[in-house]
């Protein structure tokens, strides 16, 4: 089983220098480290949670043009990027201590999303220059019994809305992927 997910994601951003300042402030607040290409071959700035222990990271590079994104339009491309939070408190503190004081557009304030998975808690916001939609989210490693009960209750409510489902949503949602071909 694969234990690491995405290696990295890189975005082309509008107003590169202003975007770097925003991303520096955001990722700095969250405790990330940063490095850049020194303009060797190309220009990019990167943000990584576990530098120097190489893991997934986010990069930005200057866009050659284009318009600010509008996540509400749900046009083709990445809809949003979810960053891991240590816990709910970090999400609340980030909302109160970074997003609101900096006038960052918050599309959904901190809340539990019981229908997603037990204990799921997140805030959603938009990058002010390019419009990249971000989520800072926490999923507990071991959810509390009450979070598990809220999750089951939320899924049962959804199930009532879908008489076409012939099994509970926690089973109906699971999909089997084709395996790697055996040679």
From TrEMBL:
Residues 5-139 form the VOC domain. SUPFAM superfamilies: Glyoxalase/Bleomycin resistance protein/Dihydroxybiphenyl dioxygenase (SSF54593). This is VOC domain-containing protein. The lineage of its organism: Bacteria, Pseudomonadati, Pseudomonadota, Gammaproteobacteria, Chromatiales.
